[in-house]
Amino acid sequence: MKNKPTSKIQGVISISSKGTGYVAVPELEEDPEIDFRHLHTALHGDTVEIRLLPKGNKRQAGEVIKIIKRAKMSFAGVLEEENKTVFLKPDDTKMYTDILIPKESFSNAKVGQKVFVEIVSWKDASKAPIGKVVKILGRPGDNDAEMESIAMEKGFAAELPGKVENEAKEIKRHGIKESDYRGRRDFRKILTFTIDPYDAKDFDDAISFKEIGKGEPASPDTNQGGYEIGIHIADVSHYVKLGSALDFEARERGTSVYLVDRTIPMLPETLSNDLCSLVPNKDRLTMSAVFIMDKEAKVKSEWYGRTVIHSQKRFTYEEAEQSIKKASAPLHRELAILNNLAKKLTKERFRDGAISLDQEEVKFVLDKNGTPVKVIKKERGDSNRLIEEFMLLANKKIAEVISKGTKNEGVFVYRVHDLPSKEKMADLAFFLRGLGKKVSLVNGLIPTSEINKMLEDLAGKSANETIRDTVSRAVIRSMAKAIYSTKNIGHYGLAFKYYTHFTSPIRRYPDVVVHRFLTDYLAHKKIGKEKLREYEEISRISSEQEKRASDAERASVKYKQVEYMSKRKGQNFEGVISGITEWGLYVEEIETKCEGLVKVRDMSDDFYIFNEKKLELLGQKKKNRYRLGDRVKIKVKGVDLERKNIDYILI
Fold first, then answer.
1. Domain 568-650 is classified in which CATH homologous superfamily?
2. What is the pLDDT of residues 283-316, one digit of tens each?
């Protein structure tokens, strides 16, 4: 039996698209429900204080009595007019009220335009909030207007402040000075290369490779020799100084944002795509982790510090894939050896309990107007995994060496991943059993070896690939979210006791902090506990911004999927059932991953009942069953671009 909660409770409010609020209260069986009349201007994501109302025979109700912290007060949408009153109709479905815009706050915007509006006053909950236009985005449906709208909704302005851009230009004007080379280990004559997506412009990381040891040169399939492998990361902290305008902006943004058609960078492009980017055939300043490894991928010695590199080759993932497989391709031998070592590192991770969570992803081919004309699946080959494993190794080893040192008094920024909750694991087990997959619960958790075995059994068979993706997403949903923290609890998903982020400082602020920390650590500077509060705040901001960026990225993909299907009304496709509810089937189109809803009311061949226990819809007369993972044929019935919804019907 749960403890009786106090009558006043603080928490974060979640608001449904119907305008009903819920606040999570651990002591209660169900989250208290707050109807529209009792929200008192609270918005989705706000931190609030609520009072519990007399329960009666219904669900526990509550009333907002204080707003402690606003999540956001700015919204994108379209300006509309009714009875000579102009208002913003927000895109955000969780914003349950329109925003009135007085004439003096139009900022030259016109009715029908897409704009970004800030709420400036909302004292009376019975009336609409008052807002002002802060930016005109363009015409609804235009690619630039929609993409910028998505970014700004999540708190990411497309432009960096002028002061930040000017600071970056001044740094670029000076370039690399002679004094910058002092005290750096020189890797310029050692083979070094980058492997990135074909359209990448900001190259965070490079790998150097040198064979060492006696006897004949080492090869992927012999027992001879060893290797010096350097993981070289752009030395952003050399340019972005603590307390500068660049540093403040990067800290507040926390991360770069990758939308379907653009990147909104954390740092100005003069740094991210130029001076800091590890482009080929130019000297670049780096922070490096250098490992001597044997043929079994065991680290025999390690070195960390500031370096200078000169990349000789820029591979795309596709080119690197060819070089791994084809003996006549550039750097075949070196990449084959690295690939062999990476596979051993992968095997060791999974032996220690890591979880395999590869998911199929799609990429849009856009025309000059940003309209999606084709959807292609992203391929993940050995070259992707090679880079991934060596980046994981660097992140793990740096966290390990600093944590085991004595100079930091336990102060550091970790990347942590908590154990899943037993409730979510029980839900996952129930879900998997509904798919006919038997799993066990050990101390409330499904063993990672069972999850990996199940996913492995589903891999490589076309009939199972869509089910595998459904299972992967269900597993991810059951997991805690990885966050930044000063308290090390390890990384459950990777099965690492120590882990941090070091390898992407161009696009992630915590990595810049870790670089600064490592520099001080190697210089034998004591990092006192007075830094703890600062690092806690950086961890909090970075975790929040990472989630917002991820939401923006997903929203841009969803918009393009809906836009793609809007041009294909009436066309037939094949899909897989990805979700089942009492109101219908969620179906994901196999090639494009465009998910839509088949409403129960449109399933006219029978009367269907939702069986929650078996997670199925069952026809009462014909006994047709629809279950998760079933393949179905669908037709695009309708598309709502404004609400980002696709309606399918079964055929």
1. Nucleic acid-binding proteins (2.40.50.140)
2. 999 999 999 999 999 999 999 999 999 999 999 9
Q: Are 466 and 595 in contact (CB under 8 A)?
A: no
User: pLDDT (tens digit, 9 = 90+) per residue, 20-78?
Assistant: 999 988 878 889 999 999 999 999 999 999 999 987 778 899 999 999 999 999 999 99
- The percentage of the chain sitting over the pLDDT mark of 70, rounded to a whole number, equals 95
Give which of 533, 530, 501, 506 is closest to 518, Cα–Cα: 501
- Domain residue spans of the chain: 8-69, 74-140, 162-417+485-555, 422-479, 568-650
pLDDT at 218: 44
Pair 497, 490: CB distance under 8 Å = yes
pLDDT (tens digit, 9 = 90+) per residue, 367-414?
999 999 998 888 889 999 999 999 999 999 999 999 987 666 678 999
For 508-552, write each residue's pLDDT tens digit.
Answer: 999 999 999 999 999 998 887 888 999 999 999 999 999 999 999
d(CA 535, CA 533): 5
Q: Is 495 left (phi over 0), alpha (psi -120 to 50) or beta?
A: left
Helix, strand, coil percentages (3-state) for the chain, rounded to 5, are 30, 30, 40
Matching fold, domains 74-140 and 568-650: yes
Q: What is the DSSP string of 466-486?
A: HHHHHHHHHHHHHSPPPEEES
Q: Which residue has the tokens 């819920």?
A: 22
Residue 188 CA to residue 180 CA, distance in Å, equals 14
The tens digit of pLDDT for each residue in 4-14 reads: 556 789 999 99
CATH code for the part of the protein at 74-140: 2.40.50.700
What is the topology classification, in CATH, of domain 8-69?
OB fold (Dihydrolipoamide Acetyltransferase, E2P) (2.40.50)
For the record, the structure tokens of 125 come out as 């909950």
DSSP secondary-structure letter at 271? Answer: I
Decide if 150 contacts 559 (C-beta within 8 A).
yes
Alpha-carbon distance 605 to 428, whole Å? 31
Closest Cα partner for 579 from 461, 418, 504, 471? Answer: 471
| Overall residue count recorded for the chain in this entry | 651
**Which of the 8 DSSP states describes residue 160?**
P
